[in-house]
Amino acid sequence: MKLIRVIRQRDYRHYCVAILSCTFLLGCGDGSTKQATSAAPPVTAASAPAVAAPANAVTVTTNSPGPIAASVGGNTSVTVTFDTTDGQPATSLAVTTGLSSLPDGWSTMTPSFACPSVSNGNGCQLSLRYMPVAAATSQVLTLGFAYIDSSGAQRMGTVDLTFSATLANTAVATVTPTGTIQALVGTTNPVGVSFATSDGTPATNLNIASGLSSLPPGWSVDTSSLPCASLTTGTSCQLGLSYAPTAARPSSTLTLGYSYTNNAGQAEAGTVNIPYIAMAPSTVVATPTPAGPVSAFVGANALVTVAFNSSDGSTDTNLRITSALPVGWSQVSSTLPCAAVVANGACTLALTYTPTVTTASSNLVLQYAYTDNSGQPQTSSLTIAYSANSHFAFISNVFANTVSQCEVGVAGQLVDCTPQTSSLFSLPTGMNISSGRLYVTGNPSGTVNKCSLDSTGLSGCTSTGNGMSSPIGLAIKGSTAYVSDQASGTIFQCSIDLTGDLTGCTGLPVSGGFIGQVAVNGSTLYVFPVNQTSILRCAIGASGLVSACVTDSAPAILDAVVFNGAFAYATTANNTVLQCRVDNSTGMLTGCVDSGAGAIFNQPIAMTIFGGFAYVVNRGNNTVTQCTVGANGGLSNCVDSGANGLNSPFGIALQ
Predict the structure, then answer these.
(1) pTM exceeds 0.85
(2) Which PROSITE patterns did the record assign (predicted)?
């Protein structure tokens, strides 16, 4: 007898749950065992391990283990026996639900069932019969029952009987392995198909009717015992296939048709579907960020992060780098070697490129090895194009009518200075760089020269701007250029178009005398009158228009001012550089003191700050002084920058 576990039992004081694995119930009415008559042989009961139930609970056993699987036209008797767990009697047991509306095919000898007393072996049994007339998928017959336990408490429970019906004597094909055949390209995968009858009675003359003569690519027959003259159960009727794909293939289905004669002598047919897919061995793909060529300036650095991911989301293993890095490249951080590589971006390598010399376009070939998802060792590589360019310093030589182009070394020094010539350079003075272009004012040519800048320096200079007679200084804010016209004391305000040309220049007189360099900081334009201890401070409106110029006193005659954070630096006629604070609300220069360098300069005429260094142009001795800008803004460690070949230098700009 199999123990049928009651899945729910309830009384009015507490609720108790156990697990039921019953398949089918049979009948008991008056306490005596009722045997349903049937032409079919009686089903042999099989015992199953009992599940512990609460004290004095009613347990249920059946004469048939597992789900009830019947054949259409068959006759299956099911007997359900009620006992108690502790041998003490329970009373007034009655089936309360389920008997009055049995599913199709089910019947009982009595429409109701009750036992006055229930204890072990006292014969409280319910007899049922299942005679399906049509095939049915798995369903559940649930019977509810109630009883009074030995303490007098009312309890309730349910019994679930799982059942199904199949057509009599069908030949059933079983595929091994089950599920979709997932094959890797280059591997061989055995697939077995076994044929047996559904009810164990013989079928005859089974053979493959379709599908074998035109197998899909990669499929072949290894072994076969077909045609089978007779088959029942077991594995004697088998077809051995193998799937060895040579190329990836999306999800597909191999369908085989078969024919046989059932035990009634009727010709029948069936099909077996074998879903399959062919996958190429996964690859590990390396993706750099940023994408594209890496370009860095000498002395600077560029960061590149490489993420390694599986191409198809499967798992590859043991990824590692197998090549060395070229000069200038180093590893910042890494999760390699990676034991597993999937598609989540967790396997990464961070590199930095810090060139010390100019480098033409080159390639970093990062080689790596791993084991793919089929267990095969693989290698691959990532190529990163890179180059290193020098920063350039441009210095105008007034009397030579040239612009010196110098490379900026790793330590900030100016080296390899060469004069750049152009028929447009006529007494070049002020300089400014914006949007990859160098602007050079020409006095007294009355023009502004615009030159293109690239990795090799300046080229393609043209004249631009209008209405000026003696431009000397130039400052840029956004798409507006401010050009100081020395002799007229006028500031010309010009728009910068998409090609970099200065257009629509209009003049605004700001001084009755000569003016020199100009500078912009925030919304303030600064103009420096020649040989005067004053500064013209002008407001710049939202549209870029200059207005409301006021005159501030200066601690000395100033030739040029540059701004760096909260500080302004001014070159003076006293061969010094002043360090001033900038009032955020008014733009006034206040608290001006010596920058810390002292009077070491020789007619300092222009200045710029770049890469943590201050570069001061000395017109008196044709040199450029290089100073370190400290955290407090002071200048120190001032040395000759190394720029050579200068001739009356006037302006300077770096990129």
Answers:
(1) no
(2) PROKAR_LIPOPROTEIN
